[in-house]
Amino acid sequence: MSAQEKTQENAPGTASGGAAQMTSGVPKELKAGRFVRQPNRFTGRITADGSSPYPAEAGRYRLLVSYACPWAHRSMIVRRLLGLEDVITLGVVDPIRDERGWRFPEPDPVTGATFLSELYLATDPGYTSSRFTVPCVWDTTTGRLVTNDFPHITTMFETEFGAFHRPDAPDLYPEKLRPEIDEVNDLVYTTVNNGVYMAGFARAQDAYEEAVDALFTTLDRLEERLAGQRYLVGNRLTEADVRLYTTLARFDAVYHGHFKCNLRRLVDYPNLWGYARDLYSRPEFADTTDFDQIKRHYYVTHKFINPSGIVPKGPITDWTAPHDRARLGPV
Ligand SMILES: N[C@@H](CCC(=O)N[C@@H](CS)C(=O)NCC(=O)O)C(=O)O
Fold this sequence. Notes:
With about 325 residues, the chain is of the alpha/beta class. It is about 35% helix and about 10% strand. The structure holds glutathione.
């Protein structure tokens, strides 16, 4: 986990802070009106060299996701880019969540679960005061949840499943670029990926304004950075691009209105918008981006923000419009 993500997740008041139900009620992870994300409880590691109880094996692990969730979306994109579809199976929950948490539309054929909570409780019956979150990884051999530690799920796919990557898979986390990728990820996590939640879940004006200011300061900086380069780091596609993309994909459809991140829209940033369309033009990104599920999840599930549950029809946005990013570097 990056330094910032660690700091953020372990912020005072969260470790023993108890439940934070972001279903129909107000999230309880609040401190002076500020949203503080709960720490990830399951932090097992799948390892290539078998140095942990979870060796990397084909067909053994199941990734559980929602198409709505940006943290889960990352893991789906990386799984596709690396060609791990037949190695790590995928289970998808229904986008609408109620007070019982995430639910599978049909009982999950591999785990047998109807609710995601069943898998958390099968692993730890004492897991009663925290949220049952996606993404998480289930081990079919031990019948246990390995991890819900979202920053590490993608890097684990990248570094521990190398033997199973498709032959021409991109190296999304090249060793030489890791310090720069981690640095960009820290900023993007704090002010953008989690920043939109800090704005949307804020219950105090100053907390909201702080989050929005930090968010748009970073977006302005990224707009400049992307003026002269096709990608965020090293002018090649990396983990950093995947992480930024999942927030950009939700920005105008959800965060601009629902989370009040409305100083500007994504489409108002020529470079960021072209960059987002460039990524969306690839099937690994487009096929995993489900705008309908994204909108229905946020607008229906967060009743404390949108009591009517009405899902807006717009915005009308052409994600397939041509982009001019190829002039800045190779695919
Ligand atoms: N595991 C992290 C991040 C993942 C996360 O927040 N996932 C959301 C969906 S985007 C979730 O599963 N929420 C379930 C709930 O709030 O009940 C956390 O606990 O904060």
